[in-house]
Amino acid sequence: MILLKKPNIHDAPWMILFSALFLSFIGLIALNSISHQNTTIIQNPFYKQLFFLFIAFFSFSFSFITPKYIIHKYAFIIYGVGIFIVILPFFGSPHAGTYRWLNVGLPFNFQPSEFVKIFSVIALARYLSDNNLKIYKFRSIVLPILIALFPTLIVLNQPDLGTALVMLSIVFPMLYWAGARPFYLFLLIAPILSILTAFNVILFSIWAFIIAIVIFYARTKIIAGVGYFFGNIFFGLLARPIWDMLNSYQQNRIITFVYPEKDPLGAAYQIIQSKTAIGSGGFFGKGWGYGTQTHLKFLPVQESDFILSVIGEELGFIIIATILITFGYLLNTIIRYSFLSKDKFSSLILLGLGSIILAHVFVNTAMTVGLIPVKGLPLPFISAGGTFLVTSYLMIGLIMRFSIHYSD
Amino acid sequence: MLKSDNIVSHKQYQIARILSWVMIIILIIRYFQIQIIEHEIYRLKSNTNRIRKVTKNAPRGLILDRFGEILVDNYPVYVLTAIPGEMNNKGMQFNLIAKYIESDSSIIHSNYKKYYRGRFVPTRLAKDIDFLQLSNLEENKLNLEGVYYDQIPERYYPNGVRAPHLFGYVKEIDRMIRKNLNNKQLYELGDLVGWSGLEKQYESYLMGKRGTYFFEVDASGREVGSALELLDTRPDPGFNIQTTIDLDLQIFIEKLLENRRGVILVGKPETGGILAAASAPDYSPDLFTGLMTESKWRSVKEDPNTPLINRYIQGTYIPGSIVKMITQIAILKYGSYDLNMSHYCPGFYQFGDRIYGCWVTDGHGDVNMTQAMAMSCDVFFYKVVQQIDIDHLYSVFTEFGFGRKTNIDIPNEAFGLVPNKDYMFRRYGKYGWSRGALLNLAIGQGELLVTPIQVLNYINLISTKGESPNCHFVVVDNLPNNSKPELEAIIWQQVHDGMRSAIIDKKGTGKKSDPNIDGLSIHGKTGTAENPHGDNHAWFTGWAEYLNEKYSIVILLENAGSGGGVAAPLVNKVFKELINNNLVTLK
């Protein structure tokens, strides 16, 4: 007989749930303001969001009561199921030109990639928490990257660049957390930056200088260090001729993929409208329901990806700052519990889920004010969106479950 | 279970905390910059420099005849729009507008509700504004706030061709329609979408691409110029489609069918192209453009003669004798028929305890197969069909395309019905039907149902000895594959001989179809289909050969009498017209 210590739900950090609910409440206020034009309840984003919050409550409860050991035991099976459901839409007909959505016979569609993000975290945590793993070796970090890369490539083909970015963004924090050498992580990212900076001489020189310093301080063998340095330079020098070999339409396709702002009818217009809306809101906003820019209705997806422009215009900087600080508090609570965890699996799960939330918050919030190129990515708990809201609360349930110290 | 201990160091913890706070703080600083430091710039911009996005519908592609004559065109109509956010007192505004254009303010109000998409999006109030209404509005412009005009292209039928079933109609998209569209992101409320006929089938070619214009407007909504930082796109018209229709012939057959109920189809068997197609009664093709009143719509919809139905693809009819070639082929292929054998027709035939009559009650006397075709003798077929089975007949019917869609390029085609043993068992049970059913099918009666377009395909296949491509109205690169019946040369010859003698034999049932023009030879078969709902349907199907070109024809007249007496004379007229008036140009 093994005596299991039962988890005590009073030990769970309820402030995490309250923070999420507080953010959802602000989201509902904004959605209500822009919902007046919709006459039917089905199309009304406000009622839709209320409905999905109700479902999200169940997904939260489900993940909150699921024992840790079950998740640990079936981690790779869960991952396999995730890969399966994210491939499924490719067998159906494209929805608005993409394969993101799965029609499950309900009045709304279901977006499998939202679940796969979480499943990747679970699989990675399982792999990285293995006792026999020699994380300090370079080859031990290759498989985790493949685990994350596989669903990422599928999602990239849907195509959904935003979600793919989020999926990839969990790898490096989790590897770092598991104890991988930061220098190896640097080695992995460096070639990409070498290619990107190759198009600007000054940037490229600065970057080469940084590589040199890092290699010097990492105290690698002379041959490896020199080889790695010139390998990167070579990568950079190669990028330019390859780019020139592409046809102009291929170049354009890549440019608009990375910088949608170059497409003047789509994203550039969105950014101008979004910045005008937010900037004109000022400190206290124009007041609930009084956002003239918002009500121009020129901002597509203002209920999901651009919800912050509505909030920024109508409720002002004060609420935007409140939202961001709440997110900061939420993330740091997660990181703290991750640090305090007794076991490595729980710790990695918490950090991975925290990374997903942080990636969403950063990409969405920065995109809305033109800090980074436009990527269609919703803001957790606030943006309208069925599957995403449900999975966000699923994550909250997992986070709270894994924050309780007990053994099972 | 979770044995491996957490070994995260305090340094790692601090770095993670600091990094996450740094990211959050960068964002807060950026929002502070935009909302507080640059607030004045954006406030001014939002008050005085709103950008308005105006979309302009692209004209749909034209529909042309085989020589490029325009069958379906566009012409611009004026619409009156309003920007809701710029009208202070809607009720009063609507009353004023109603007064100026002499309309009813409730109509304007219901349009407003129908097209409303947002406070600053132009919303349609009225359509088809004429010059007088326009000048009235212009005179009183100062009283109206936020009211604009727009020009939109609308369908127009310039050459007197009606063919509403062929062209189909376009529908204005309202909320309900948009919800059910497959590719709804391509359409806005008020756009036109092909709803039936060619307009629907070739929607992706015809629809064109909407243009987008950006204007800077001031606080009161007046345009102050185009928004320079954003590129306008002009509307991109849809592609024109060229049909196989011959304009003059189409008009001719439409006139011919005036005040009748039925179908005329004329085609070219070698290409499968259809030269003319009419279903009567029809309706005016511009019924759906302009303002259609409820009562006008109801009168068309509830007309007992069902003008909305496209009879040549949706009407299913008992074929009668026009499918005797199928019986003939089935007997020659599966039976053991001796071509020199004759049968005696006394005018009736007793089978079991039932008497099956011939259409000539006095009988045809001794007839061989060719004579039986010429005179359409039923008794001959009652007798010889007993050599074969109902499934033999079924397989020949399906080889010639009956019982399934022909894949003609207009939507909503009917299947028709060809019974086989399975069907008979399912419908009547094991003992509910007898071999007598075979006798009925042999002369095209019984459960059989065909559409006129299936008959055209059938006659195309016979005239080309199985080589005719799929029937179509628009020439495309990849036509669907047509069925390709393969028969021995002697069977084809026997079928052609029989159809030829139906025209040239003294007693031939189809002889009234021959206009007796030098060099023109006609093959044909009449049909008089008994139907339980009223008088007989008159059928004629066949083809003419002239200067090495073939022209196939199908005529069906509902409840009109005998095929030889009523349908054949119309065939005569059609072929005469073809040859005298425009055959020279038909190549």
Characterization of this structure:
- The complex is a heterodimer of chains A (408) and B (587).
- The model of chain A has no long low-confidence stretch (mean pLDDT 83).
- Chain A has 16 helices and no strands.
- Chain A has helices spanning 14-34, 45-65, 68-73, 75-87, 112-128, 142-156, 161-169, 171-178, 182-197, 201-218, 222-245, 248-258, 264-281, 307-340, 344-368, 386-403.
- Helices cover 67% and strands 0% of the residues of chain A.
- Chain A has 408 residues and is mainly alpha-helical.
- Chain B is an alpha+beta fold and 587 residues long.
- In chain B, the strands form 6 sheets. In chain B, strands 2, 3, 4, 5 and 10 form a 5-stranded mixed beta sheet that branches.
- The termini of chain B are far apart.
- The mean pLDDT of chain B is 87.
Order of helices and strands of chain A: HHHHHHHHHHHHHHHH
Quick one: which chains have the greatest interface? A-B, 68 and 51 residues
Mean pLDDT of chain A: 83
Assign an overall shape of chain B.
Answer: elongated
Q: What percent of the residues of chain B sit in helical stretches (DSSP H or I)?
A: 25-40%
Portion in helices of chain A: 55-70%
**Strand percent estimate of chain B:** 15-25%
How many DSSP H or I helices of chain B?
Answer: 21
Strand content of chain A: under 5%
- Can you give the mean pLDDT of chain B? 87
Q: Helix and strand layout, with pairings?
A:
The complex is a heterodimer of chains A (408) and B (587).
Chain A: H1 14-34, H2 45-65, H3 68-73, H4 75-87, H5 112-128, H6 142-156, H7 161-169, H8 171-178, H9 182-197, H10 201-218, H11 222-245, H12 248-258, H13 264-281, H14 307-340, H15 344-368, H16 386-403
Chain B: H1 10-37, H2 39-48, E1 50-56, E2 63-64, E3 70-82, H3 90-100, H4 105-115, E4 123-129, H5 131-139, E5 147-156, H6 164-167, E6 170-172, H7 175-180, E7 192-194, H8 197-201, H9 203-206, E8 211-217, E9 223-226, E10 241-242, H10 247-256, E11 262-267, E12 274-280, H11 294-301, H12 311-314, H13 324-334, E13 343-345, E14 348-351, E15 354-357, E16 365-367, H14 369-375, H15 378-384, H16 390-399, H17 421-428, H18 436-442, H19 452-463, H20 489-504, E17 521-531, E18 534-546, E19 549-557, H21 563-582
Helix pairs in contact in B: 3-4, 10-21, 13-16, 13-20, 14-20, 15-18
